[in-house]
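Cast an eye over my tokenised protein here and flag anything odd:

===
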Amino acid sequence: MPKVDETGLSGEEVSSRTENGQTNAVKDATSRSFADIVRANVFTLFNGIILAAMVLVLLTGSWKDSVFGFVIIINTGIGIITELKAKRTLDRLSILVASDYLVRRDGRNQAVPHNGIVMDDLLWVRSGEQVPADGVVIRTWGLELDESMLTGESRTVRHREGEQIYSGATAVSGMALIRVNAVGVHSYAATLTAQAKVYKKTVSDLNRGINTILKFMTFLVVPLCVLLTLSQIRAVGGWHVALVDGQWRSAVVSAVAGVVGMIPEGLVLLTSLNFAVAAMRLARHNTLVQELESVETLARVDALNLDKTGTITDGGIAFDRIVPIAGQSLDGRQTPSGASSSAISVRDVAQALYDCCDEEQPNATGKAVLAGLAEQGFSAGAVRARVPFSSARKWSAVIKSDGIWFMGAPEVLLSALDRDRSDVLNQVNTYAAGGSRVLMLAHWYVDSAASVQNEVTVIDPHAEPVALVLCGERIRDDAEATLAWFREQGVRCRVISGDNPITVGAIARKVRLTGDHAPVAMDARELPDDVNELARVLEDVDVLGRVLPDQKKLIVDALHAGGHVVAMTGDGVNDALALKEADLGIAMGNAASATKSVAQVVLVDSKFSHLPDVVARGRQVMANMERVASLFLVKTVYSALISLGVVLTQIPYPYLPRHITYIGALTIGMPAFILALAPNTRRYIPGFLKRVVKFALPGGVATASSVLAASWFLPGIMGWNLANDADLGAMRATNAIILFVMGVFVLACVARPLNSWRGGLVACFAAAGVIGLCIPFVADFFALVRPTGTTLLATVIAVAVSAAIFALCLWLVPLIGHMIARLLRRRGFNV
């Protein structure tokens, strides 16, 4: 550590600033609090409806008919446990990146935690550290900062004494002593991300559809429940008989059976289960889903904005190649006037380049060159003396037996020569425009090794440019394959960066961002400010450079205006606002803490290649959920129609709540969960509710018609007196069988094609229902009765009629729907 005269703050001064709140402490919650998670999962419309129905049934003393209420506990528990697990994982990530910092107090260097830094502290910023607070450079020893987290610009910046530096930047080389002038919420990084830390709930098209159903059912349930209760009171003989004989309990249970049947509680449960399973599967691949609903958003994404640094590139530098100076031959060339002829080969140049970079502490570019040449078999050669690289002079040199080799910035080396080499500068500019970082090697030839001096202080004006050294940002190995997958899936990828658009465009070409045709690059400074106009411009642009943090957010807004579902990747503080605004924010594991806190998905190991699996998992969940949601909505439709038929005809409710629990589990809940886990990569298209209802209506109408027909006609045919408990139980048991058979029909339609494991699935659950009927404990608990004699014959006839009704409705209901829609369109309605 260099010696300095500054003593820094005293202990008393530190205590005073701490008491005044002038510390670097920032409320940096990486995710929602425990209370927020519990509140969001417990207080839902679905839970309220089911809980109210459960309490009503419990008040009647018929606890067996209240088992449907346990779905509240299961559903709520899954949501809370999964989100808490995500919270703990992310909090651990935040702790892992925390570290102590070195400050100078009372004339001594002390290590303090991030929150222990106070205003006016003298803070050491060392290579590899992230700047924890804003400050002014007091002393510097070659400090270079990577400010890409703040600006998006990947090139490092050298800071001099008296210059301001900001929190969030990372020291890549050198060190400095700074005086802190902004801490905590007043620092630059904290100010930039203050808006981004506001929690934004992910909007789920699936949950929106389910909530639409629930809201509709809420308006329908209350009056229908009252009407059902009144009709059931009348069915048992009126209020006097109901209150005296306790028949009101049966009336309430019957009314609840209709209400519960209309609520697709299994669909809500299955949605939570599938989101949780998807999140856990992704977690095994180091992908953290912070909100369950974001799994669904993954399926809808059609526009993906990629941050170059940290996503396509890993932020490091890679050695590309050595290019001869135009007109030069590296197997033998003319030497400068006054020198004898000397032969030089490509290997000589590469060896000289290796030796120039082989310093005690090479910078990032030097390390990249050494690594690249080492892979080609080069190692340290004989060097008599060296001049280390200095950012101030921008060149280095090595003295070898054949002369002096200079390496450094081309414009610096060329400006020191005694002749015009504008041709070389043009060549340099051409490669730089293509996105490369360009260095130059120059050689000063001598007659003999003895005449070579052992000390060099300036570039010899007679040196001859020999070759250009091209380096570039290190591209992730998985970038090209990952982008190809997104192209195949119909997702439009754009690269948005703070770097030069030419540089970013060159990298986009290397990874084949747009496939066989060249990507269109644009400078973000030329973008219009109007959102709608920007939306039109973006349709023809693939790469944007020189993008400011506010512009990233504006770009997301413009894509939204164009009707796109937008995902955004990022790792810097400058990405936080855009990640928050996007439908799906994806943060890298090494991202700034504030950036991770607003992202719905965190790639813990920062591997871009995880994204296809992330999107595919979301598509699997959504495509399958759409497929099985019809099972649940069929029950909603037939329960509403049956309840309406019961109210209008004043008959006892055709079945009990426990019947619907048993039948729903075997023909809807369990098979739907299995079907929902099947592979499926179809991109989700908005309109979930419309498509599901289109399938659910025929099945619901058919089932309701079958049950109501049986309830209206079987008592007369069989001579049942529904005022008698035994006859009423027989009628309800028969309707339970009809419900089960119709449920199997609907399941078979959803599971098609049946010539695979899906057919076996339908057969297994159909068999399970029959076997349960034959098990005394199961039959007793769920009030199931095996039909015998004439009851068996009536049941068979009813089932056959129900099958015919089912087939008729599958053909007739969609036809009627099309006719009604056509009539409405003719009258000017948009349907």
User: Anything to note?
Assistant: The longest helix spans residues 611-649. The chain has 28 helices and 21 strands.
